[in-house]
Amino acid sequence: QVQVVESGGGLVQAGGSLRLSCAASGGFDSIANMHWYRQAPGKEREWVASIINGGPTNYADSVKGRFTISSITRVNARNTVVLQMNSLKPEDTGVYFCMAVRRLGGTYWGQGTQVSVSS
Fold it and tell me: Which residues are CB-neighbours of 96 under 8 A, at least 6 positions away?
């Protein structure tokens, strides 16, 4: 079983920055890829960014050039990825979720962390 925990959310003014972390731990195999999603109030969950372990990154058009997802680091079966968010806009407000996919299959979600951007 893999546990996924996000941290780093908070309240920031427009134009500011936040750094979200996601830690996926447990499981005997490694993580194949990790993703960030977000869900604004009253809206569906949307994909934000992805990192393939040892491979490329991808971003939603709405965050391209402002958000950066780090490579996946693994220490003692704990896989960590960071989402650096710069030039934040009020429309970036929402609950940010991390999803981890194991190499041998299985998708795991965290509980989410709140990001609020004031205008």
Answer: 6, 9, 20, 36, 37, 38, 48, 83, 112, 113, 114, 115
107 beta partners: 101
SS3 91: helix
Tokens of 80: 């960590």
Q: Which of 77, 89, 55 is nearest to 69 (CA)?
A: 55
Query: What is the per-residue burial (b if ≥16 Cβ within 10 Å, else e) of 9-40?
Result: beebeeeeebebbbbbbebeeebbbbbbbbee
Per-residue pLDDT tens digits for 13-26? 999 999 999 999 98
Question: Radius of gyration over alpha carbons of the chain, in Å?
Answer: 14
> Nearest-CA neighbor of 22 among 38, 42, 44, 40?
38
Higher pLDDT pick, 105 / 59: 59
Give Cα 115 to chain centroid, integer Å: 12
